[in-house]
């Protein structure tokens, strides 16, 4: 695609640039910065909070390497190294509703039995809640075991159904973006949220690359948004292959 067009490449992180919750491989990182960056503007939009994205993308300097970094689906935004805004789920829901919801989650989790349970079941982020039945402090091995168990027993899907039934009017969306948890955020605060920070930036084309593009996945809405050209990938090596094809590298 070598052209005079102003092109933006916007990448999901887990499963697209890195293995889930693992750091990006050096080769791929160097390929992005040395081969792709000279040809287009680079951006990230991850479901995780900024701390986790930075861990996976070689540290907090990620905001200087990628012109746009959108954490928590774009609810926390950085442009050219500076934070330019953030949303607050606390303000959106209010303390009363938030606590009623968290109390229900904790009560629900106390009734389910899993092969193992660890700690950090509710992670309170700026623009979303992240809920993990096994607990975010599980080991890598326990993480993989939970994913397998969840694929067989639908722990997360069943819990989401209960939450939807209990809170039909709360105006939130539930999204399974990773292996051990699901995200809860106000409806509309999915990854398309970040596009409002890009649509007036003069790009001729915004290419989005993501792996969770099927309905219910956290790339689904942005992948299908008319403002982007969506590329479905299966893993980081596929992302690299697709970039090589697009840019004739
Ligand atoms: O980026 C995708 C997801 O990554 C993590 O999911 P998990 O720990 O379940 O694999 C979380 O940070 C989640 O919020 C995020 O959507």
In short:
The chain is about 35% helix and about 20% strand. It has helices at about 25-35, 50-55, 60-65, 90-95, 95-110, 140-155, 155-165, 220-225, 235-245; strands spanning about 5-10, 40-45, 70, 75-80, 80-85, 120-125, 130, 170-175, 180-185, 205-210, 230. A seven-stranded mixed β-sheet has the order 5-4-3-2-1-10-11.
Describe this structure in words.
The chain is of the alpha/beta class and 249 residues long. It folds into two domains: 7-87 and 189-247, 3-Layer(aba) Sandwich (Rossmann fold); 89-186, 2-Layer Sandwich (Hypothetical Protein, Haloacid Dehalogenase-like Hydrolase, Chain: A, domain 2). Helices cover 34% and strands 19% of the residues. It has a seven-stranded mixed sheet. The radius of gyration is 18 Å and the shape is globular. The structure holds 1-O-phosphono-alpha-D-mannopyranose. 1-O-phosphono-alpha-D-mannopyranose binds at residues 13-14, 20-21, 46-48, 52, 130, 177-181, 183, 218.
CATH architecture group name of the largest domain: 3-Layer(aba) Sandwich
Bound compounds, please? Answer: 1-O-phosphono-alpha-D-mannopyranose
The sequence of SSEs as H and E is: EHEHHEEEHHEEHHEEEHEH
Number of helices: 9
Q: How many domains, as an integer?
A: 2
The CATH class of the largest domain is identified as Alpha Beta
Rg calculated over all Cα atoms = 18 Å
Helix content: 25-40%
Q: Which blocks of ≥5 consecutive residues have pLDDT under 50?
A: none
- Helices and strands: which structural class? alpha/beta
| Morphology call | globular
Total beta strands? 11
Compute the separation of the termini in Å. Answer: 10 Å
Largest sheet: 7 strands, mixed
CATH superfamily of the largest domain: HAD superfamily/HAD-like
Q: How do the strands line up in the largest sheet?
A: 5-4-3-2-1-10-11
């Amino acid at each position: 695609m070598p052209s005079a067009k102003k092109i933006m490449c916007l990448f999901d992180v887990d499963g697209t640039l890195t293995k889930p919750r693992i750091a990006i491989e050096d080769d791929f990182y160097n390929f992005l910065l040395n081969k792709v960056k000279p040809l287009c503007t680079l951006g990230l939009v991850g479901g995780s909070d900024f701390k986790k994205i930075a861990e996976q993308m070689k540290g907090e300097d990620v905001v200087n390497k990628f012109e746009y970094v959108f954490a928590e689906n774009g609810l926390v935004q950085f442009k050219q190294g500076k934070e330019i805004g953030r949303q607050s789920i606390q303000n959106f829901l209010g303390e009363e509703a938030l606590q009623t919801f968290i109390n229900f989650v904790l009560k629900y989790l106390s009734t389910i039995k899993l092969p193992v349970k660890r700690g950090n079941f509710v992670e309170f982020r700026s623009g979303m809640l992240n809920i993990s039945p096994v607990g975010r402090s599980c080991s890598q091995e326990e993480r993989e075991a939970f994913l397998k168990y969840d694929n067989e027993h639908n722990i997360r899907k069943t819990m989401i159904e209960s939450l939807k039934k209990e809170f039909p009017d709360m105006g939130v969306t539930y999204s399974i973006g990773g292996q051990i948890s699901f995200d809860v955020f106000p409806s509309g605060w999915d990854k398309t949220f970040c596009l409002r920070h890009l649509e007036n930036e003069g790009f001729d084309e915004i290419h989005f690359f993501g792996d969770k593009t099927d309905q219910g996945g956290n790339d689904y809405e942005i992948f299908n948004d008319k403002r982007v050209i969506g590329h479905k990938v299966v893993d980081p090596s596929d992302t690299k292959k697709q970039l090589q094809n697009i840019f004739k590298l």
